[in-house]
Amino acid sequence: MFRQIAELGHEQVVFSHDKATGYRGIIAIHDTTLGPALGGTRFWHYATDEEALTDALRLARGMTYKNAVAGLNLGGGKSVIIGDNKTTRREYLFRAHGRFVDSLGGRYITAEDVGTNPMDMDFVHMETQWVAGLQQRSGDPSPVTARGVFRAIQATAKVRWGSDDLAGRHVTVQGLGSVGFTLCRHLVDAGARITVTDIDAGRVAKAVADFQAAAVAPDDIYGVEADVFAPCALGAVINDRTIPQFKVAVIAGAANNQLLEPRHGEEIEARGIVYAPDYVVNAGGVINVYSELTGWSSARALRKADEIYDTVLDVFEIARDQRIPAYLAADRLAERRIQSVRAMVRTWPQMPRKS
């Protein structure tokens, strides 16, 4: 276990149990160089405790990179609760989670994630102040996330074609949840033509009606000939099965963990496809949470999401200069910011410890 923690560079991992509620949770803190570790709480029925630990460690490390690339003064962390996320007995479970979060004294700030919702975070808030994503606070993150994805598509288009003008471009959008649907509106307003898909026929029908979009079956979206593919649903959609089907020049979307394996990032670039790393593109979500912590207005959060455009350009500049794939270049950009802050020298004296 310590070897696994050391290999990924984590600072702290906390295992917590509450007998009264049956709560079993893991809080992983990866890096706090830039600030307190921020990352959501995932509630999932893991097959084994080892699987839960691996997920917490991997997700916490990912949050360090996402927060760093987004230019936020936050480190990376994540927590997982092991159990059935369909349970209706939630109050005391999440209050127990809140007490363990509070025991870390602000080193870790949680929020909602897979299997949790704003009401759960309100229960957590009964026991700790170190929680975001509360109801009636920052609100729905999808407008900020979608704005960032749209700006990332523009930046990637500029890298590919020398212009960020999307008028006349054909974009395929996979997934019409809150982010995907809002992204469609941005694209259509910019003059793009869209083809959409979703497992929910009602969402597809609404997109067709509202945006005059074309629609295809979920499995057919990968083979549509277009300029841009925007995955906004599940992860791992770039894999051995889908890569041969792609007929696009750009991939940039909101879905997390789009590459099934790192090698797939190299394989799509070998096919001439420009891929914008997912955690750079979808950073609007964490920007929205940060806006709640700092008291930013919604307008300022949207302005911060606009900066994703320049971040994407920075990633491709690093990729070009170092001759590495874009997904690795994003990591380099994050590591550069962390190392720069870590190397800064404190300019105020420490008080001597009195014994």
Describe this structure in words.
- With 355 residues, the chain is α/β, with parallel strands linked by helices.
- The protein folds into two domains: 2-64 and 74-125, Leucine Dehydrogenase, chain A, domain 1 (Rossmann fold, 3-Layer(aba) Sandwich), CATH 3.40.50; 142-337, Rossmann fold (3-Layer(aba) Sandwich), CATH 3.40.50.
- Helix content is 44%, strand content 15%.
- It is globular.
- The chain starts with a helix and ends in a 13-residue tail after the last helix.
- The model has no long low-confidence stretch (mean pLDDT 94).
Distance between the termini: 36 Å
For the largest beta-sheet, the strand count, sense and barrel status come to: 6 strands, mixed
Percent of residues in helical segments?
Answer: 40-55%
Question: What is the annotated CATH architecture of the largest domain?
Answer: 3-Layer(aba) Sandwich
The best one-word shape is globular
Under CATH, the homologous superfamily of the largest domain reads: NAD(P)-binding Rossmann-like Domain
Segments where pLDDT lies below 50 for 5+ residues? none
Label the structural class. Answer: alpha/beta
* Rg (CA only): 21 Å
Tell how many strands the DSSP assignment holds.
Answer: 12
Taken together, the total number of domains comes to 2
The CATH topology of the largest domain is Rossmann fold
Number of helices: 13
H/E topology pattern:
HEEEEHEHEHHEHEHEEEHEHHHHH
Percentage of β-strand residues: 5-15%
The quaternary structure here is single chain
For the residues shown, what is the average pLDDT? 94
In CATH, what is the class of the largest domain?
Alpha Beta
